[in-house]
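hi support,

uploading two proteins for the ticket. first:
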Amino acid sequence: MRLMKLSQQLGERKIIEIIQKHLDLMPKMPIPFGDDISAYDLGKGNLAVLKTDMLVDKTDVPPKMSLWQAARKTVVMNISDFAAKGIKPLTILVSLGLPRKLNTKDNIEEIAKGLNAGAREYNAYIIGGDTSESSDLVISLSLFGIAKKGKVMLRSGAHHGDIVAVTSFFGKTSAGLKILLNDLKASRKIRRVLTDSVLMPKARLKEGLALSQTKAVTAAIDSSDGLAWSLHEIAKASKVGFLINRLPTAKEVERFAKDNKLSPLELTLYGGEEYELVLTVNPKLWNKAQKAVEEVGGKLLNIGKVTAEKQVLLEINGEKHIIEARGWEHFKNEAKNRKVL
């Protein structure tokens, strides 16, 4: 109980910071500690790229999400970080913590099918893993891939004057979760779009791989912790600021917010689990980057620019407002754990 209370006070990011201080960091790490992925230098210009992330039923599985969807979502969560770095995942290890109430043949088959569907959707394979009994459903994945040294899109390369871009509009998962948790009103069509964004998320792997070949991207991150937090993470790593002058709010979110007297700005900036890519792009190579994404069926939206001032700002009708550094974080109160604003 004491440990639980301490964790709730500290928050996930503070816990990681404390742990990191007590680790002997590997010399000459090719990717800085704390980026979306980790890597080991294999020599001859090649990097072994690694990623681990877990799904826990209590905090990551909303109402009406099936076991198949939860298992697939775990794959998407991990793939999204590879997408943000422009790296193709190859193999996956699965660790499954299973409570006794779920230990039936039908449930195990549903989880296995969801994991395999997610892996094959992104041309990766599950090659092994581990199982154990647990008090809550836990699905933890470890991904492996190969990348060329110097080709990985890090968080730390943004420069003054770069274009800030995203791979789609935001706010749908925030709104979708409100519908699933609180049954807020929405038309049948909008309800389907918003809840599908929660139950069947997609990683922007094709877009990330295409962008990595253009040499146009100077910094990148996935938006699983929310648009605002992602912007602050790049700003901190690159020692720059941002001026956002085109807020990428989905049209369905604008309608939903109006019908339910909610703030579309809050839904857009401070949600999470959208798995879009947040990027900075060399303005001289913008057309090349945009074309590369469109050729794989995606889109690239210009939402602002990188500034020398170390602030993250939103411009509305000529007035500048500070975008707060907040987003999704484990060990906070229950409402935040369910990503409801």
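and the second one:
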Amino acid sequence: MSIKNYLMYSSFEKIFGCVAEKIKDRSNGDVTIDAYHRYKEDVGIMKGMSLDAYRFSISWSRILPNGKLGGGVNKEGIAYYNNLINELLANGLQPFITLFHWDLPQALEDEYGGFLSPLIVDDFRDYAELCFKEFGDRVKHWITLNEPWSYSNGGYVTGNFAPGRCSEWQKLNCTGGDSGTEPYLASHYQLLAHAAAVQVYKKKYQTSQKGKIGITIISHWFIPFSNTINDQNAAERALDFMYGWYMDPLTYGDYPHSMRSLVGKRLPKFSKEQSETLKGSYDFLGLNYYTANYAAHSPHDNSINPSYSTDAHAKLTTAERHGILIGAKSASDWLYVYPKGIREILLYTKNKYKDPIIYITENGIDEVNNDELSLEEALADNVRIDFYYHHLSFLKSAIEDGVKVKGFFAWSLLDNFEWSSGYTVRFGINFVDYKDGLRRHPKLSALWFKNFLKK
């Protein structure tokens, strides 16, 4: 059964892929690297590298094509994930399953606006419970949401991600929206949906299935642009508005004070019951770290063209400070290499958020998809090896300082469809040949990881 007509991202591609060029190469995610049919081959690659876990997401629409239990369950989708899980376990790999990685069923977007509505909370809980019932006897690590910040910012502030919404005054050719309110609503209901899924898992399944459940949050590290108090405060606010936006409710039951103060009535409120349900609603934290930014104090009248992007009164840049870039630039214009930041964000998390168990659920760097390179040249990703060597060194330092990091996942195993970047960049440690039947080839970084894991 094809799911593409039921998936919001497929609709986004059709609307924007060729019209507004929201996807850089006008590609789509219909087949991508065809993991659906090649999962045994990919599991074999992982086993050959001596990996012991694989993080992947379940597509909500593949399980529930219409988004709700009442709309019917796709048995073929259930069978596919059972086959994948069983293949992983048979080859010594533990599945870490993400329930929502931005691929919302189109039916729910059409019916009530997806994560802009409180109705999403029960529908997500029901979908999550179906997954617990079908797969929980073998799956011991669940992740409710992947990067709610990216979904809210990309989908409702810049419009670069589905559903492609933003304020009209931004003139970004969006489908409608309000960048001063909708990202806060989308994040609010993502948090409540997360809490509802965790609650049902802990009440009905955790004791018998003996698994753990958490959430994956992304954060950059933020460095004051200067040594002034204003810029130091701006860096703290930037962390609040990206990381604390989720970690404060998950740990303390409410948004950071800086957000309450600056966003005001546009920031939704939790009831006392919701606050209590959110507090401590994870067994482990998944942390995605890629890059760092300078933060400078940037006053703004939040009553004029309000937007999440200016609410923090912090101007974020990777530009030169005292003639120095924050780090080497990757293929993506948002990713500058700053390995020390992984240690800093881990220590910050330990000290501010009650010393949680942490898995690094994404860390990686991309290169340009250059068709002019020979295969041998394309596989020589020494920059990626250097990236991982330095990040893992700082990760080791954080562990030595007492941070409870229990695992590390590279982004990504394979080159793939990278959202609005399409196929213009490659994040994989294994090369996918888009011109030769999607054949997989290990890059030097894959061989480096294999040797690293043998030591």
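thanks. also noticed: The longest helix spans residues 229-252.
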